[in-house]
Amino acid sequence: MYWIALLPSHEDERTAWGWRALQFTPRVAQVDEALLVEASASLRLWGGRKGLLRRLLQETQPLAPVQWAQARTALSALGLLRLQLRGESPPAHLPQDLPLHVLTEAREHVPTLERIGCRSWGDLRALPRAGVARRFGAPLLDALDVAYGERPERYPWLQLPEEFDLKVELAALATTAPELMWAAQRLLTQLQVWLQARHRGVLALELEWTLDLRRLNGVRLPPHEQLTVRTAQPTQDIAHLRRLVAEHLSRATLSAPANHLRLRSLETTPWGGASKSLLPEDNVKGERLHQLVERLSVRLGEGNVVVPQAQADHRPERMQRWAPAREGAPRQGKDPLPCDAIYPPWLLPQPLRLEVRGEKPHYHGPLRLLAGPQRLETGWWDDGVQGPALRDYFIARSDEAGLLWVYRERLQPNAVRWYLQGIYA
């Protein structure tokens, strides 16, 4: 057997370290103040003890480092860890030279045992078992047998939860939303460990803070307030999530001071890993485009960061619409129609009605029709539209403006209107 005892430097990271250890072995348990990891069955997979320790203890970002000890049994490893915390040197022989005060079951009996000259596990083991059982109880002998590997070690093994949901108490009351960021960073760190252990990427998460007051100025307050954060693509990049949460919190307000913060995952998906190119020029360092879009959408407002979206409509002015870039709004109707080769590269925001003289359209002078007509009859299904679109499109030349894209609207047999809709660069 090969046991490792871990003690995180931060109390609130104990759960996250347990999740991290589960990536290397399923036998992880929390015993007293430490985490106990049994990894004998996983040593070959991770390249032996040195390889396992290197990956478990050195590649610890974003978690804080831990103190650790290793031994053949769990209680021996825990005893060595406790000696290390007290600044004492490990004994030459294990486990018989370990002091009694590092054995949990013996702590309350240490003063009595020391008066009879019993100061180590070996000294206790040398005493008559029947007398020890009568004087100090059978649990002390059972713990000693487990420590020597003569009895099986049974612990409640940790399991990864199906959903991430953690709550922490704030060190001080938060009066503004940005003050929640310190606690949010700690929770996001543990979220990353959970995502890595579950091999998932997060798409949506929720921050919930508990209000310290029930009424304010005579107005009844809700017990909790929530903030939802969504991403365009699944991610395990907590640096990006931290920036995104900070942007949201900078624009949020608290109805009253908050005393607790909770973070839970709303939507996750299996994680396929980050895609990398074999070409160095494709692996550009820095923030990805969708991450920049998400942050700008929060900072400037979703309606101010938009992208064009193709629409299945023959009317040129309705072939695309502007949708919020962060949400990636779904397309309406069928697949977009292919653009005709004669379409100009630039369309006016709204068709410009042209002056007609002698049945000829004018735009900075008379226009000469070079190609056309291209007939369009569509739009009869739209509500609120005054009749269908009945148009004849032409390519026209203006002596001053160059090539133009115009159309003739056929309202009635004797009623014709001309419009300018596009310009050829």
Question: Structural class given helices, strands, pairing?
Answer: alpha+beta
Describe the largest sheet.
5 strands, antiparallel
- Helical amount among residues, as a percent range? 10-25%
Query: What is the β-strand count?
Result: 19
> Looking at the structure, what is the overall shape?
elongated
Runs with pLDDT <50, length 5+? 329-333
Radius of gyration: 36 Å
Strand order of the largest sheet: 13-19-18-17-16
- Discrete helix count: 10
**How many structural domains?**
3
State the distance separating the first and last CA atoms: 77 Å
Approximately what portion of the residues adopt beta-strand conformation?
25-35%
Topology pattern, helix = H, strand = E? EHEEHEHHHHHEHEEEEHEHEEEEEEEEE
Mean pLDDT: 84
Give an account of the 3D structure.
- The structure is a single chain.
- With 425 residues, this protein is of the alpha+beta class.
- It folds into three domains: 3-147, no CATH class; 165-270, DNA polymerase, Y-family, little finger domain (Dna Ligase, domain 1, 2-Layer Sandwich); 346-423, no CATH class.
- Helix content is 24%, strand content 32%.
- The protein contains ten helices and 19 strands.
- A five-stranded antiparallel sheet has the order 13-19-18-17-16, with no helix packed on it. A four-stranded antiparallel sheet has the order 2-3-1-4.
- Helix 1 runs parallel beside helix 8 (181-198), helix 6 crosses helix 7 and helix 9 runs parallel beside helix 10 (289-300).
- The longest helix has 18 residues, at 181-198.
- The chain is elongated and about 125 Å long.
- The N and C termini lie far apart (77 Å).
